[in-house]
Design goal:
Number of helices: 8
Distance between the termini: 23 Å
Oligomer: single chain
Strand order of the largest sheet: 3-2-1-4-5-11-10
CATH superfamily of the largest domain: Vaccinia Virus protein VP39
Radius of gyration: 18 Å
Largest sheet: 7 strands, mixed
Shape: globular
CATH topology of the largest domain: Rossmann fold
Order of helices and strands: HHEHEHHEEHEHEEEEHEE
Length: about 260
């Protein structure tokens, strides 16, 4: 499952996570449309602060389970859940732990490895192990969704070592303005991005407090994903190029994989 570096990263940046991702809503509508077509429960692998499971339970009215390995992210999810309406609380289950050994009851009609989560799985052995677990949890007609960026343009770009201002946002607990920046390098041979996130939090007196959080992510290509799925007893049903359902073509922003259990496995 995700590396210890990934766990430490999310423990470190958890209080910024919801504010910095407030812009991210297109994926929720996409996941919601998929959940609306399912008759049973939904599982979100790497559920973080509950962004996806709370949306699905609240807006779509479906039972939703989340697995999260960061105690701090999960604590925030539980606080958000406690503040939700009773009918939403009844539909949501939150599980702390590693998806490779977590014990879950029942099977799921829809499993989401939502926004970029699979990028934290960096070794082939763990990639196959996680996919095999997803296969175990899927109903016979269930759908697995792995939501990743399309890396074609990125891998064709040049590394210049520049610091990029990603966004600014207000951290709600303190009311402080935060400038989120990043600097990254690519190892194209290993399909890894080494990225350092820089959070400059501006306090009321103008003092800037800087938080630096490194992270390593694995990038996937379509043929690689097809092989991983097949070895794990799954098969691709479709690639989608963006949250509007547009096709996966050269230059599209996303590589959203829809997969099902292989009948001949």
């Amino acid at each position: 499952m995700p590396s210890e570096e990934s766990r430490i990263f999310y423990e470190t940046v958890a209080r910024y996570y919801d504010a910095e991702n407030a812009f991210l809503t297109e994926d929720l509508a996409f996941y919601g449309d998929l959940a609306a077509g399912c008759e049973g429960a939904v599982l979100d692998v790497g559920s973080g602060t509950g962004r996806v499971v709370l949306f699905l339970a609240g807006e779509e009215g479906v039972p939703a389970t989340g697995i999260e390995f960061s105690a701090e992210m999960l604590a925030r999810a539980r606080r958000r859940l406690a503040a939700a309406p009773p009918e939403v609380r009844e539909r949501v289950s939150l599980v702390e732990g590693n998806a490779l050994d977590a014990q879950l009851d029942g099977r799921f009609d829809l499993i989401l490895v939502s926004y970029h989560t699979f990028m934290h799985i960096r070794t082939q052995a763990e990639q196959l192990a996680l996919l095999a677990r997803c296969r175990e949890w899927l109903t016979p007609d269930g759908l697995l969704v792995i939501d990743l960026p399309n890396v074609g343009d990125l891998f064709g770009s040049a590394d210049d070592g520049s610091v990029v201002l990603e966004r600014t946002f207000v951290e709600p607990e303190s009311g402080h303005l935060v400038m989120q920046q990043s600097v990254s390098t690519l190892d194209r041979a290993e399909q890894l991005m080494y990225i350092t996130w820089i959070y400059d939090e501006i306090e009321a007196d103008g003092v800037v407090r800087r938080l630096v959080a490194p992270l390593t992510l694995h990038y996937y290509f379509p043929a690689e994903m097809d092989l991983l799925l097949r070895v794990a007893g799954l098969e691709r049903a479709q690639y989608i190029g963006d949250y509007d359902g547009s096709p996966f073509v050269d230059g599209c922003p996303r590589m959203i994989t829809l997969a099902r259990v292989r009948l001949d496995a």
